[in-house]
């Protein structure tokens, strides 16, 4: 693999910091998962098969959209969906893939996360879709992931895990925390429903449309006057 001068040090460190955070809060384990970060006309990804606590900025691999790679390591085997998501989503600058437990548990059943809680809207829509199973590392997996993420910032991958999108790797971790909470909530809701013979109540499309509008101004907003 060709080498070039090590650039984008801040972005490389942001990837490693986010990866370590996912480990620390139990959203990944071992060498599972991966992170991508757009840097201009190229993007950075975590290397294949390295433990996050051993990773250095030089281990992060740079790729372009033609699949050319620069670095000293082999990139994550899932680099294709990073490339294709970045290519199809100019609004996205960071991608995180995880095998978090509750997201993956639902994905094993090929289940989406419906609007069991209004915070499903933080992923961009009225549900969090589950892409159908495709062999890991393949173009076929990339294709179904891109489709499941249309109009969304998160999806599940059947029998595999989850993908979340954001502005920075740290933003992705924050969203993954929320999506994993929603997955756990739905798992527990289904267990209670099974015990009492009742289906969970799902928020209607009309009510979720109100939520999505509300979320556009949720949280701290930039000061348009710059007055602080």
In short:
The protein has a domain at 9-110 and 131-172: L-fuculose-1-phosphate Aldolase, CATH 3.40.225.10.
Supply Rg: 18 Å
Structural class given helices, strands, pairing?
alpha+beta
Instruction: Bin the helical content.
Output: 25-40%
Number of helices: 6
Kindly identify the CATH topology of the domain at 9-110 and 131-172: L-fuculose-1-phosphate Aldolase
- Within CATH, the superfamily of the domain at 9-110 and 131-172 carries the name Class II aldolase/adducin N-terminal domain
Portion in strands: 5-15%
Strands, count: 8
The rounded distance between the terminal residues' Cα atoms is 48 Å
Description:
The chain is α+β, with helices and mostly antiparallel strands. It has a domain at 9-110 and 131-172: Class II aldolase/adducin N-terminal domain (L-fuculose-1-phosphate Aldolase). The protein is built from six helices and eight strands, in the order αββββαβαβαββαα. It has helices spanning 9-24, 79-88, 101-108, 139-148, 169-196, 205-215; strands at 34-39, 42-45, 61-64, 69-70, 94-98, 130-131, 154-157, 161-166. Strands 4-3-2-1-5-8-7-6 form an eight-stranded mixed sheet, with helices on both faces. A hairpin with a 4-residue loop joins strand 3 (61-64) and strand 4. Helix 1 packs parallel to helix 5 (169-196), helix 2 (79-88) runs parallel beside helix 4 (139-148) and helix 3 packs across helix 5 (169-196). The chain is globular, with a radius of gyration of 18 Å. The mean pLDDT is 94.
């Amino acid at each position: 693999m060709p080498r070039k001068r090590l650039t984008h040090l801040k972005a490389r460190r942001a990837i490693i910091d986010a990866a370590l955070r996912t480990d620390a809060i139990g959203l990944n384990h071992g060498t599972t998962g991966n992170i991508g970060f757009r840097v201009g006309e190229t993007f950075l990804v975590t290397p294949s098969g390295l433990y996050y606590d051993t990773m250095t900025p030089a281990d992060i691999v740079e790729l372009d959209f033609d699949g050319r790679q620069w670095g000293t390591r082999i990139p994550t085997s899932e680099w294709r969906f990073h490339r294709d998501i970045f290519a199809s989503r100019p609004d996205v600058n960071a991608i995180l893939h995880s095998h978090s437990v509750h997201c993956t548990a639902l994905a094993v059943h090929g289940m989406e996360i419906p609007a069991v809680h209004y915070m499903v809207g933080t992923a961009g829509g009225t549900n969090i879709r589950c892409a159908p199973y495709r062999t890991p590392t393949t173009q076929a997996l990339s294709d179904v992931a891109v489709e499941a993420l249309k109009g969304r910032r998160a999806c599940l991958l059947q029998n595999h895990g989850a993908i979340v999108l954001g502005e920075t790797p740290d933003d992705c971790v924050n969203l993954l925390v929320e999506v994993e909470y929603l997955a756990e909530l739905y798992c527990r809701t289904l267990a209670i429903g099974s015990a009492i013979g009742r289906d969970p109540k799902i928020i209607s499309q009309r009510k979720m449309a109100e939520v999505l509008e509300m979320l556009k101004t949720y949280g701290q907003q930039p000061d348009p006057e710059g007055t602080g």
